[in-house]
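Appendix B. Chain record.
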Amino acid sequence: MAFTYKVAALAPTIQPPMDEQILSTETESPTLAAAQESVAPPALSSASVWLMAITVGVTVANNYYAQPLLADIAASFHLTVTRAGALAMFGQVGTALGMFLFVPLGDKFERRALISTLLIAAAASLILVALARTAWWMAAAYFCVGATAATVHVVVPFAAHLASPSQRGRVVGTVLGGLLFGILLARTFSGALGAVLGWRAVFIIAAAFMIILAATVRTRLPFDRPEVKLSWLELMRSTWGLVRAHATLREAALLGALSFAAFSAFWTTLVFHLGLAFGQGSTAAGLFGLAGAVGAAGAPLFGTLATRHGPRVTVAIGLCVTLLSFLIMGLGGGILVALIVGVIGMDLGVQLSHVSNQTRIYQIDPQARSRLNMVYMVSYFTGGAIGSYLGAVAWHALGWWGVCGFAAAVLSIAILVQALFGRTNSSAAPV
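Structure tokens predicted for this chain:
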């Protein structure tokens, strides 16, 4: 970790082979990790925490503006429901690739400058979406929007790095609360604005948000240059070493992917269900984001609970709550109150699992948090992309029952996976 890299920098002539560097990063003792944490910076200011929460919320929203507008976008480009679902998938595939390319750089470059640069790229991508004239143009531009949305996953480990150990759970929970607020309220914002000004105006306004954020982040967040001295290829190689070494990372990544697949299947198809069952469109779909924001409001508390009771326990609770919510929505899909209750429960469960999973992985290696987060979030958004597409396929084949059945099956697999991991690693520390 930090000690290893400093020695390598001071004595390059005796630097060990890369495999040995990876091994040392993976196998350092908890005592050394605790010593590194003991020299953490002072408590992170509330202003910086809130700026990071706002940054991740507004940035991640770019990936979700399209969901309540899919019916309008599909009409503009003469797309079927399945192809409209594929369009949503492009954004999440882009995010997965963006995390693979950009997020590890948070362990290498000065983070404020990296974040600001990615925000400017996001603004350019959003403008291309607004100017799209064909479905393929739209898909390519939305892919770029998704790729730059990976900025979020540079910010979150940055916040975890700056926070003191005693406040880390609360800080991560607050920043991730901003993320979920962004995901949910993006639908409310775009649904309402799109109904008045059209879907293209939503993306122009979003581009303006990105430019404002880029300037604010560059001037207001703390300066922090990581100590890791590795090339991008070496960072990626060491990341694979982290995946091989840590069962906790593998488990968290798989559980996150399954949970987000169910979540994405719901939001991709909700607008079509509301149109068929209730005669409502993008505005109503956006308003459901307000109900789901209840889950985001609990994020700081979820971080505290994960620290106090153990994140493994809170992950299990979150998965079970999410599964129960889909059963409620499946059985009561034609009842508005049942949908609202289900959305609140689903978002509470997904948020609880997500915050708890990230709390777990940030305990593994303080000097590799960006790479750990990259592994987790690439898996997370890959699951979301698959869920968006398969949710649309399930809707086309079986309607609302198909969507809720698909989500329930995926969540049941996640609960089983966690039980199996727990049994296999019963002698390990409960993280």
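Further analysis of this model is presented in Appendix C.
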